[in-house]
Amino acid sequence: MEELAVRGAAAAPPVGAGHNWPRNDGVDLDLGWVLDQRVNLSAAERRVATLPGRRTVKKDAQAAWLLKAVTCIDLTTLNGDDTTERVKRLCAKARHPIRPDLLDALGMGDRDITTGAVCVYHRFVSTAVEALEGSGISVAAVSTGFPAGLVPHDVKLREIEASVADGAREIDIVITREHVLTGNWQALYDEMRDFRAASGDAHVKAILATGDLKTLRNVARASLVSMMAGADFIKTSTGKEGVNATLLVTLVMLRMIRAYQERTGIKVGYKPAGGISAAKDVLNYQFLMKEELGREWLEPDLFRIGASSLLADIERQLEHHVSGAYSALHRHPIG
């Protein structure tokens, strides 16, 4: 694993230069397949509980895994007090997420390491597109009445279309949780198909808001229906729910991605979001991705992390690796 980690980070492409995998065209809704989904809770809990004890990386290998994680971050600001200048600062950090002196010390100074994307509200899409011009970094827009998703359906579609028109290359939509909670899988499928059509050439990440879905069985079924309807990524959370990304929910969603690929041949990406703020935590997500789906899912084409403060902690850990001393978190601003 250590050898793969080092090689993987060293070979990181200039991320953001475009997606390198085919769109998920979706398949017909198969209700039999959906309703057949079950989750063995005790087995799933044991699986994730043993992960930190079984998998660990240290020193150069850990630095390599963390650099790889940086390239998969959707650097995000989704606050009510967001401003144009804050978004511009965030975009500047996305272009150069790690201080040049640290990259030089790690032997990575010649690498064009960027974050995977910048994620903002529609109001700031054009600002981010302008700030990122020439970088190849995608702008992702949260859409469809984020975070609750309770605006009229036609308003959701117009919001998607407006964000694409302003230059967003990725659309993070929120599903209607009621469809999941009431078992109305046809409505969820139809909604997601409309979102996919409205997105045009942009890639679509379906936010399931797993903390609102009550059961892991619901998480599994919602994951599967969203992929059937054409989601290019499935994403845990808006970051605004009481419970956001967890390893347990991640395991269930990754196994649905694997099942979908085995049956259709289509690779779908995964994005945990909300509550991932420590470097040690993101390593566990990376380990689980590799064990469940394989090496390809460590790349930003198929793995994104919705985060903001995570980047500051990764940079802090990399400085400790280089200097042997921890610095204060405020010395590593993200925007």
Keywords, please?
alpha/beta, TIM Barrel, 8-stranded parallel sheet, 15 helices, globular, disordered N terminus, deoxyribose-phosphate aldolase activity, lyase, EC 4.1.2.4, DeoC
Give a topology summary.
Elements: H1 2-10, H2 31-35, H3 41-49, H4 51-54, H5 59-70, E1 73-76, H6 84-95, H7 100-105, E2 117-120, H8 125-131, E3 138-142, H9 153-165, E4 170-174, H10 177-181, H11 185-198, E5 203-207, H12 216-228, E6 233-235, H13 247-264, E7 269-271, H14 279-293, E8 305-307, H15 309-323
Parallel strand pairs: 1-2, 1-8, 2-3, 3-4, 4-5, 5-6, 6-7
Helix pairs in contact: 1-5, 3-13, 5-14, 5-15, 9-11, 11-12, 12-13, 13-14
Structure description:
- This is Deoxyribose-phosphate aldolase.
- It is a single chain.
- This protein is an alpha/beta fold and 335 residues long.
- The protein is built from 15 helices and eight strands.
- It has one domain (2-16, 31-331): Aldolase class I (TIM Barrel), CATH 3.20.20.
- α1 packs across α5 (59-70), α5 crosses α14 and α13 packs parallel to α14 (279-293).
- The longest helix is centred in the C-terminal third of the chain and has 18 residues, at 247-264.
- The chain is globular, with a radius of gyration of 19 Å.
- It starts with a helix and ends in a 12-residue tail after the last helix.
